[in-house]
Write a structure and sequence with these properties.
single chain; elongated; 17% strand; alpha+beta; 121 residues; 3-stranded antiparallel β-sheet
Length: 121
């Protein structure tokens, strides 16, 4: 496992635990490039890689994932804090995952910046 996979600072380690597998992989790749190809100090490379990830996805550390799904022939958006469970649930109800999206983009693009959450019935 590359050095970037085991961050030096405990605060960084705590924040990285909040990333999903794809986000963690992107972080590790960026930190590795900065460290080994750009010659940036490891601690700084780790911090910059996390900042870059947050810049690309401001909600990366929130633990919230938005799935665009197809259900009963229409598009819907599923908000979750447990992606594996949400995917299992989606399969159980006969839905299909279309994409993982940015919550801010969905709120603005689909709901004009404000939405009401309801419980699943």
């Amino acid at each position: 496992m590359p050095e970037a996979a085991n961050p030096q600072h405990p605060i960084l380690a705590d924040l990285l635990c909040r990333l999903d597998a794809c986000q963690r992989e992107a972080y590790e790749e960026r930190a590795g490039i900065l460290t080994f190809e750009a010659g940036v100090d490891r601690g700084l490379a780790e911090a910059l890689a996390l900042l870059d990830l947050i810049h690309q996805n401001p909600l990366a550390l929130s633990g919230i994932t938005v799935l665009q799904i197809e259900l009963d022939g229409g598009s819907e958006w599923l908000l979750t804090t447990d992606l594996p469970f949400a995917r299992q649930y989606l399969g159980d109800i006969g839905g299909k995952e279309i994409a993982v999206l940015n919550l801010k983009d969905v709120l603005w693009g689909q709901y004009g910046g404000i939405a009401t959450l309801t419980t699943l019935g």
